[in-house]
Amino acid sequence: MSENREQVYENEEFQVLLRKYEDMRSGAQSIFFDVEEFEQIIDYYLDDFQYEEATEAANLGKKQHPASVEIKYKFIHIYIEQSKPKKALSLLEEIPVWEENNPERFFLKGTALCLSGKLKDAEVQFDRALEISNEGTFDALVNISIAFENVRHFELAIKYLSQAHKQQPDNLSVLYDLGYFYERLHRFEESMKYYHQYLDQDPYSDNVWYNVGIVCHKLEQYEKAVEAYDYSIAINQDYASAYFNKASVWVNAGKFNLAIEAYKDFLEVEPESTQAYCYMGECYEQMNKLDDSLKAFQRVIEMDNSDPEGWFGAGMIYHRMAMYQEAITYILKSIEFDNNNLDYWINLGYANEDAGLIDEAIKCYAYVTRVDAEDIHGWTALTSVLLKKGLYEKCLNFLREAYIHHPRDAWIKLKMAVCHLKLEEKELAAKFLTEALEENNSLVSEFGSFFPEESYDSQIECIIERYK
């Protein structure tokens, strides 16, 4: 909402108008409002996202002023705000011909076309609106950029917002949005240019320093990112996201002790965040402080007994501690709260396998392949354990299915070669071994781990020599 519009709504005159309208809505009395008053009332509800109330006001306006084009425009506004571009475009067809020189008509049509994905047609309409506009075009250019931003087409948003920037080069809102749009396009140098222009005018903007931190983080300029977040925090000590992002920077920089300190600072502001404790647990794990890691995940469980990440994290730490039964218990509990997370299922398989519960492990891996055949990790784990158990026929059946979904995966072909050779199907073994090594010749040594070199027949030995 613009500052001017906000001032209008706070104005006593408008408040009186709104009370009169509310009285009429409640049936207390019948009151006549002119078109301009209805426009103000409808805009008020639209700006507050009260679409049903805006529609009701528009209908009452239409009832009192059935020939009003202005009320019709308000209906179009409502449809656009509700993301109903077809209805908006249909109603625009009813706008009379004498409105051909009204920029609002073309602006609304451009916005509706934007929502419909017809961006080239939208540009034509917007350009026409700008061409026939008798007043300054700054606000129109900003609104056009917002229309393209809403459909995530940042290049076109920049095209129009840059024109607004030329008209008002010191406008902070424009500088902020240009910085953001360029950031979304991963054009970070240009993004930083506009953010710094903003800070030249207002060095105490916590939000802009925060955004500078995001850009520096993406550029892997970790020290500068932390510095920007520190400025943001210095301006606003309750800026929780700045603490959180600062911690993320230190994680990516591999400085887990500093990340933990930043997460602790974040928890001073957001003490109920289980996510922060989860990330702290992961940091402690990276530092091999498994007891501290386990405490962090146990804290998550204490705070929210139904948070699957707490149970899973603790289960993973128990697994690393070789406490397999505890690991299985905790990971099963995470699955109880999030049955669709395949990462939980495959790690449950790993824990069962390391506990010697091979049949249970196979069930877990097979479940992953059934739910998501495109997940290569499920196939890898399943076929590896079957190979270890010497279940070559069964393994080959799964490998054939895996091959359908991952026809270029060299490991699948190598395992098929191993199974065929174990089953003394030498021609097929030679075929898949050749294909595997064609994809990745470094797998020669892996193949050797399944067979002593002296056991190769001449055909296999020839293939091995070719790719060594």
Question: For the terminal residues, how far apart are their CA atoms?
Answer: 68 Å
Average per-residue pLDDT, rounded, comes to: 92
Query: Any idea what the radius of gyration is?
Result: 32 Å
Q: How many β-strand runs? A: 0
What's the SSE pattern?
Answer: HHHHHHHHHHHHHHHHHHHHHHHHHHHH
Give helix % range.
over 70%
Low-pLDDT sequence parts: none
Structural class call reads mainly alpha
Note the beta-strand portion.
Answer: under 5%
Please report the number of helical segments.
Answer: 28
Main beta-sheet annotation: none
Shape: elongated
Task: Characterise the protein shown here.
The protein has 468 residues and is mostly helical. The chain is 76% helix and 0% strand. It contains 28 helices and no strands. The protein has helices at residues 3-10, 12-25, 35-47, 51-64, 69-81, 85-92, 103-115, 119-132, 138-150, 154-167, 172-184, 188-201, 206-218, 222-235, 240-252, 256-269, 274-286, 290-303, 308-320, 324-337, 342-354, 358-371, 376-388, 392-405, 410-422, 426-439, 444-448, 458-467. Helix 12 runs antiparallel to helix 13 (206-218) and helix 17 (274-286) runs parallel beside helix 19. The radius of gyration is 32 Å and the shape is elongated. It starts with a helix and ends with a helix.
Write a concise keyword list for the protein shown above.
468 residues; mainly alpha; 28 helices; 76% helix; elongated
